[in-house]
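User: I need a structural model of Fe2OG dioxygenase domain-containing protein from Oryza glumipatula for a docking pre-check later this week. Nothing fancy, just the predicted structure tokens so I can convert them on my end. Input:
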Amino acid sequence: MEIGRLVRTQTQPGWAPTTRGGGRRRPLALALGRLSSRRPVRCRCLAAMQTSPPPPSVRTVSIPFSDLKERDRDLSGKIEEGLGPNGLGIISIADVPGFPVLRKTLLRLAPKVANLPEDVKKELEDPDSRFNFGWSHGKEKLESGKLDTFKGSFYANPILDAPTTDDVLVRRYPSYCRTNIWPASHLPELEIAFKALGKLMLEVGLMLAHHCDRYVMQQGVGPYDGESLEQTIASSRCHKGRLLYYYPRQFSKQEEGGSVSSWCGWHTDHGSLTGLTCALFTKNSMEIPCPDSAAGLYIRTRDDKVVKVTFEENELAYQVGETTEILSRGRLCATPHCVKAPSSENASNVDRSTFAMFMQPDWDEKLKFPSEIPYHQELIPPNGTLTFGEYSERLVNKYYQGKT
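Assistant: Understood. Predicted structure tokens for Fe2OG dioxygenase domain-containing protein:
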């Protein structure tokens, strides 16, 4: 699930390094402490912005996989440049073994899912999970408040088909605890490809989280009462993969050419880390290069500018979600982003497929939101404490039809 929000300047207390092995689960305590950084978090607003001339294109900071997998290697410079207070909140990993094949295998299935018979897709829907399992189309609201009909999604937990057998939890947190729904009879290869890519993206994400923990510790931030980012992700049962299919649209030269959010509205992910693949474009069932150099992922920078962000086709990108920004007290910064549809003369009847892997805390991890941090304050109870499951379900309520 993706959401949007406004972030203001805040103070930045402690962080704890990851610990190897097991141990008793502890809450993600987010109480404010003394100011420990000479560099404040920059403000950024998600209000719509008209840009002329077109926004510039910026390449992500890239880390070779061979460096990332070395736990003792100092990657703090790269982490700060890509994910720190002055970064874009996104970083890419190059040369991940097996990733290019797994990416194409899954993305080529996205149009097949979207083009399944309507009665089959209806069977794949799960309204009780707020459409966070199985097929979803035209249910989500973003940015303008209108229903999003430009893209369809297939959701599943690629790690656990049934995260829990506790019926109380299933009823309490249906967006995370219900079971996966696979089109076993009509598209059996989807489950295999979805799980293979999702598990790889989680493994690489855990490596990145380890280096994020090392970076935050190096900033002189003392220990805090809670788990590190790596341990938070590793112990979670509610990761979620989202296979996205952007439907072909008809464009004239003038139509929607100025909107950078024409395919997906501005929002900020609310989890810990989001893994992203480079998009795959097809036209009349044939794979093609992107028909419009202006189309793609856009990010709002720390000084409230909009830039187009690019990374290589065979690189795996990771964005920071707002839970990590809270957990790190602004040392790692979440990414307001949107997607622009192609609008060139050759863009008609072009579709786009991609995959996102949402890595997030477990549903019972406790988040404490002090009043000084204005994250969706209308959703936070007087004592400022919610589990991640409670918090995210309240956010989901804001963006889906029939839920208030």
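Before docking, keep this in mind: Confidence is low (pLDDT under 50) at residues 1-51, 251-257.
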